[in-house]
Structures are given as C-alpha cells and as structure tokens.
Specification:
Shape: globular
Order of helices and strands: HHHHHHHHHHHHHHHHHH
Distance between the termini: 12 Å
CATH class: Mainly Alpha
Number of strands: 0
C-alpha cells in the first residue's frame, strides 16, 4: 500500500484520477438505463438493443478521430465540446416524443460525441509521473477505478429507477457528464499537459505491428466479457447474474491492488490473460450454480485490470506521446466492436445452442487473445529494466 500512498502524493495525480472517473461515470449507467427506459417507452427490447448497438458502433468510429483531434487541438477544446453535446442525446431520449427509429438515430449521434476521456487521460498520465514504475502503478489504479464505474453505475441506475422513474438516471447522467467532463478538461495539469501535436496522417499509427496487436487483444478480451454477461444471465437468471458479474469486477479491483505495482516482463500480458482463461474454464464444472460461477468470475477478474493496465503501459512506453491519444482511440474502437460483436454472437448461441455455449465462446476469445499476446512477446517491451527504476518501485 505504500506504493499507492506515494503515488497519490504526486501533485495532480489524485485530482486527475477522480475527475476522469466522474467524467466517464455516465457510461457505466448508459447501457442498463437505455435498456430499461426504452423498453418502458416502446414495450420491447429490440429498440433498446438497437439503440445500445448504435451508440457502441458510432463510438467505435469516432474514438480514434477524437483521439487524433485531442493531439491536434488540445484536450480542453475537444473534451468540453463533447461533454456539452453528448448530454443532449440523453435529454432527447428522456424527454422528446421520438419514434423507435428516432431513438436509434439519437443513440448513433450520441455515440459520435462520447468525450475522449480515456485517451486524453492516458496521454496526460506520463506527464504527471516521471518513473516507469510510477506510471505502471498509475495505469493499474486507472484500470481499477474503471471497474468501480461498472460496479456502481448499474447499481445506482437500478436504485434510481426503483425509487423514482426511468427518466431520472438520464438526468443524472446529463449533470455528471457535464460537470465531470468540464472539471477534467479545465484542470491546470490537463490543460497544460505537454502533448505535442502529431504531424502524421490519420491512421498512420496502425502501421505499428504492436499497435495492431494491442487492438486485436482488446477486441477479443472485451468481447469475452459481453459473452460472459449473456451466459451468466442465461445460466442463473437476471436476479443472481448481478451478483456473479459483480464478483468479476471485485476480483479485478483486488488483482489491481495486490499486483498492479509489480515489475512486468514481456510475458506479463500473456500470464494475466492466462489467469482470466483459467477462471473461465473452471465455470464448466458447475455453470448453473451462482456461487460457483461467482467464484470462477472472481478468479478471472484478478487478471482483468492487470491486463488493461499492462496494455496501457506497453503503449505508453512504445508509442511517441503525440500519437498516444489516437492509439488509445483505436484501442477504444477495438473494445467497442468486441463488446458489441461478442454480445451478438453469444445471444445467438444461447438461443440456438445452450447457455454453456456462450461460456465456451468467451473462453475461446480469451484463449485467442492470450495466444496473440504470446506471439507478440518478441516485440513487447519489458518494464523496469534499470536498477534505478527498480529502486523507484
């Protein structure tokens, strides 16, 4: 814990971490809010599914573009504009008398303006901490806080809906998005972050084999999460699925706290993905038992935040600072595509094969992600090479 205490003593670290957490929080509420509200309005889940998919697809398209714009025009301008425009979509969905097609189109437009908080933040982190050990720890804390979004967000949404109505979470999302986004964008250490403007053409970062590998790993890895979610609901029902999925996030937080500050070799990502795969495979011993499923997902979760942190650290070490916002944008695109495609295929498997088939699909995605990471060991940097860096840890 001393490592984390020292990290938070670094000027600017704590405020940037919590500002970006607030700015990203609405998107931990978005999926379940859209699903419940749109089903309530239109009486079916088809519109809700299409709206969620539309927001995901358009966010995948815009993520690298907005990341690039951050490097060209600065974090403040891009994040403030997006933080003011995206909430308009929440208000339209909540209050406008729109048709089913209008709800889907609004979601598509909303996704285009998802504030690029993640790429902006991860471009700022290397300017706040100077040693590689501190950067690795900071990325681990960031990944852990990301899990908090997915634990608290859905719970808060369901509590608000149960005690008020389906519109209130949308209003909360509006205020949190505006306050969090503008707070983050106006922080002096964010505005003043020395991120040089990229002079390369859009998409040139994809020439890097390492970047392409990280995109593929993220796509497969996140795709496995959505397949697990669908499988959990099918296996144990909606009521108990919340518990077992929360265990995944809890395991992720504990894994980040326990191991996030450790030195990493080029094999670190492969090992972390292997931990996730072991947890997934253990599910097949008793997939319909909520307690056993929760234990298995807890084991899988131990490697989740660690893997995301390692991917961020790899990019921070390997990619020039002026290119990192765009690279993180492409990473986000891979994650969104993986999540959407994974959920779609898992849904078909549950309906036409069995609930266990979605777990097999998730395990397969994790296995391929691990093999891709293993195949890329030769081009993956190691961390904490020097004695001075090891002492700094």
């Amino acid at each position: 814990m001393r490592t984390y205490a020292e990290l938070f003593k670094t000027p600017g670290v704590a405020v940037v971490l919590f500002a970006q957490l607030l700015a990203r929080f609405p998107f931990g509420m978005q999926t379940i809010t859209f699903a419940i509200h749109l089903e309530h309005v239109f009486g079916n889940y088809t519109v809700a599914g299409l709206a969620i998919a539309g927001a995901t697809v358009s966010a995948s398209v815009s993520a690298p573009i907005l990341g690039r714009l951050v490097a060209l025009y600065g974090i403040k301008r891009v994040v403030v504009i997006c933080s003011l425009v995206a909430p308009i979509g929440f208000l339209v969905i909540g209050f406008a008398p729109i048709t089913e097609a209008g709800a889907v189109i609004t979601s598509l437009c909303l996704g285009l303006f998802v504030p690029p908080i993640q790429p902006a933040t991860r471009a700022v982190y290397p300017t706040l901490v100077k040693t590689e050990a501190s950067r690795n720890t900071l990325f681990s804390v960031d990944a852990m806080l990301q899990e908090v979004i997915w634990i608290v967000g859905p719970v808060l949404t369901t509590v608000l809906i149960a005690t008020t109505n389906t519109v209130v979470p949308l209003v909360v999302m509006v205020f949190v998005q505006i306050i969090g986004g503008i707070w983050f964008a106006l922080l002096p250490m964010v505005q003043g972050a020395p991120i040089p403007r990229s002079k390369k053409k859009m998409g040139s970062v994809l020439r890097s084999k390492l970047v392409r590998v990280m995109i593929v790993v993220n796509l497969l890895f996140v795709g496995s999460f959505s397949a697990l979610e669908i499988g959990a609901v099918a296996a144990v029902g909606k009521a108990e699925a919340g518990f077992v999925l929360a265990m995944l996030s809890i395991g992720s937080v504990i894994g980040a706290l326990a191991f996030g500050h450790r030195a990493r070799s080029p094999y670190a990502l492969t090992k972390q993905l292997a931990v996730v795969l072991v947890g997934d495979l253990l599910i097949f011993f008793n997939a319909k038992d909520p307690l056993w499923l929760g234990i298995c997902l807890f084991i899988s979760g131990i490697g989740v935040a660690l893997a995301f942190a390692t991917i961020s650290a790899i990019i921070a070490k390997s990619i020039p600072l002026d290119d990192t916002p765009e690279v993180y944008g492409w990473i986000g695109s891979g994650q969104n595509i993986g999540y959407g495609v994974g959920a779609a295929i898992a849904g078909v498997l549950v309906d036409h094969v069995s609930g266990a088939a979605s777990f097999a699909f998730a395990s397969g995605l994790d296995a391929v992600a691990m093999l891709v990471a293993l195949a890329a060991v030769a081009i993956t940097p190691s961390f904490l090479h020097s004695k001075s860096e090891k002492k700094a840890a």
